[in-house]
Design brief:
The chain has five helices and twelve strands. By secondary structure, it is of the alpha+beta class. The radius of gyration is 16 Å and the shape is globular.
């Protein structure tokens, strides 16, 4: 049986044999010795990493090690509330920091801890559930994921792409005015507005 280490755009962990294109973690071990998930996160540092880095090898869900999580693509990791890793994705991390600085009108580049504090407030509410918000679809920038009729869609150009664990499976024309539930946290959406463009799965280009 596949491990419960895949992440969907709602931020939930689920089981799937489909392979993601990005890895990440939530600041520590979320699993027990039997590799069962016990918690949603360990700390507020939620990051997104590459699958391979400097030849390092890990046994997934090793005892007392951080829980490796997997995403279809960067857009989904952002929707779940993660940000780029400062080590294995330094260039993308710096680009994200720059967009954050512009979005927040900061005089200096932000530190990781500053971003993590704000991101954590924007992704999880007092009830420990994912925070979302409503917006007119026309105003939602490319790279965000939105919820429509219980399903997650990637906003991409003039289209909405239906998410699935293995890829985007359907392209719908993007309607102009409907109000939708935005899954991507507000601080990340603000970075998209300032030029950060998330990486998306190859199926988004084939539809």
């Amino acid at each position: 049986m596949p491990l419960q280490n895949r992440v969907d755009p709602f931020g939930d962990l689920f089981r799937s044999a489909a392979r993601g294109t990005m890895m990440g973690n939530r600041g520590g071990a979320l699993h027990n010795a039997e590799r069962e998930i016990l918690r949603r996160h360990k700390s507020r540092r939620w990051i997104t990493c590459v699958l391979e880095f400097r030849g390092r090898h890990r046994v997934v869900m090793s005892p007392n090690r951080y829980t490796e999580l997997f995403f279809l693509d960067e857009a989904v990791s952002f929707a779940a509330g993660h940000r780029p890793c400062a080590e294995c994705r330094r260039e993308r991390y710096n680009a994200f920091k720059h967009a954050w600085q512009l979005a927040h009108r900061l005089d200096e580049s932000p530190y990781a801890d500053e971003m993590d504090v704000e991101l954590h407030r924007a992704r999880i509410g007092a009830d420990k559930q994912k925070l979302t918000y409503e917006a007119v679809l026309h105003d939602v920038p490319d790279g965000c994921l939105v919820q429509i009729d219980g399903s997650a869609f990637l906003v991409w150009g003039r289209s909405l792409l239906l998410w699935s664990p293995s890829g985007y499976t359907r392209r719908d024309r993007r309607p102009r005015n409907p109000v939708v539930t935005v899954l991507t946290p507000k601080p990340i959406v603000a970075c998209f507005r300032k030029g950060y463009r998330p990486e998306v799965h190859e199926t988004a280009r084939r539809l």
